[in-house]
Amino acid sequence: MNEHTAPATTRPSTRKRYKRIAYGLLGAGILALWIAIALDRFAIGVALYWAGGIGMGLVQRFSPVDLYDERDAAIERKAGRNTMNVFVLGAPGGLVLQESGLVTLPGEFHGAMWTLFAIYVVYGASVLYHKYRT
Amino acid sequence: MRNDISERRAETGESQADLAAAVGVTRQTINAIERERYDPSLELAFDLAAHFGCRIEDLFDPADEDR
Prior knowledge:
The structure holds two protein chains of two kinds. Chain A is 78% helix and 0% strand. By secondary structure, chain A is mostly helical.
């Protein structure tokens, strides 16, 4: 039994309930962000989005049970890897299509590519940080 | 990894949820281990062995695992 495991009296239903609350807060934050963007209230939207994210973090931190076990972590690891592979291999395909004249990509696509690049820079920095700490 | 957790659980009359609560994971994780779709961490394997009062190698058989 360690910090990653729950006490013996923990019931799965309790874990499920807190998980719903945590994801509900994040979902509400995302919804609020979209509504605020639609209403041209960006700052309020981002504030509500952050509030939802922080709320989720607080529920995870202070819930009486651990919301994730090691299998959840393994699933997230695999899903994250697959997601990265889809974007890393798939997104540049758009540039190939544009070069071949099959499609004309909107400016947003190039913005998305730069965002993807930025995500990889942060990801790489995070990997290095944890590599030297582990 | 092959294991006899479901047999041992049946002997003690525990449900998957009972065992999951005892070792601090979800019922789905116990189900996945029993169906050999998920290999537990060493730590969880120790917890499971301790729960059933046996050694890890009594509980798990890696013989069929691809190496």
